[in-house]
Amino acid sequence: MSSPPCGRRSHEGSTNLSESDSDDEPQLPLNQFYPYIRCALCCGFLIDATTITECLHTFCKSCIVKHFFYSNRCPTCSIVVHQTQPIYNIRPDRQLQDIVYKMVPFLEELEREQMCNFYKERGLEVPKSVVISSPSPVVLRRQKKDNAPQTVFTIPPELDVSVMLEFVGAEEGIIDYKPLERRYVRVSGEATVRHVELFIRRKMELSPTCQVDVVCGDHLLDHYQSLKDVQSSVGEEALQDGLLVLHFGLVLPSHS
Questions:
Q1: Per residue, what are the HEC states of 78-129?
Q2: What is the pLDDT of residues 125-161, one digit of tens each?
Q3: According to the per-residue pLDDT averaged within each range, which of 9-18, 58-67, 99-108, 211-220 is highest?
């Protein structure tokens, strides 16, 4: 649930901010902090501040989730957050949200009131987390931590294989490629070696003429093999600290 446009509250917020400061402290208008406490999608103050792990840009939770329905890129810098499930690469930023609530008077109370009205107008039971008044900061922090695993950011059970990709080098003549920045990925066991190859090609921006050979242990893997089959067939030799280790190299296609 995003906040109203910032213009409705900016003047009120700056007035209270100035009154709360002592005469000896520098007084800054609230609008100087807008780039840090406003959502670029709805132009309101951040509500449920949520940060993209790939680029660290922050938005309202509801705004960025809706944005990912039709795009997998960051609205600010256009980086690809995730090829298929960008929502897996966002995290709640509770420290920033606490800062926003402290800087903008009455924002937290207004948001809680709007949430209560939302549920009541639809005949739904108001969640306890909405109506609870904070008895003490310690209890409130503990409740937030208890609720954290129930958010959308938990890793789904179908992503049951953790893979470590080890680059062993490129054949002479292959020079135009990017380094693989992310060596660790979590995927479904039903994914095939072909999927791994496509991931490597995209991240390293490989030429179509370049061939990717994937090896597990002493076994050169076929494209059709699933990662679950690879792990079961190679056995303990394939694992390192619970990770499926895949070595890959770049070669030029053989011409027979």
A1: CCECCCCCHHHHEEECHHHHHHHHHHCCCHHHHHHHHHHHHHHHCCCCCCHH
A2: 777 665 544 444 444 444 444 454 444 445 566 667 8
A3: 58-67
Helix, strand or coil, per DSSP, at residue 164: strand
Q: Is the dihedral of CA 3, 4, 10, 11 positive or negative?
A: negative
- Distance (Å, rounded) from C-alpha 111 to C-alpha 125? 17
Give the Å distances, CA to CA, from 157 to 27, 99, 187.
Answer: 50, 34, 10
Round to whole Å and give the CA distance between 17 and 105. Answer: 8
Contacts of 27 (CB under 8 A, 6+ apart): 17, 18, 21
- Bridge partner residues of 50 (DSSP): 59, 92
The whole-number average pLDDT for the span 95-122 is: 87
**pLDDT greater at residue 8 or residue 28:** 28
Look-up: residue for tokens 């003429």? 209
Please provide residue 107's backbone torsions phi and psi, each rounded to the nearest 5 degrees.
-65, -45
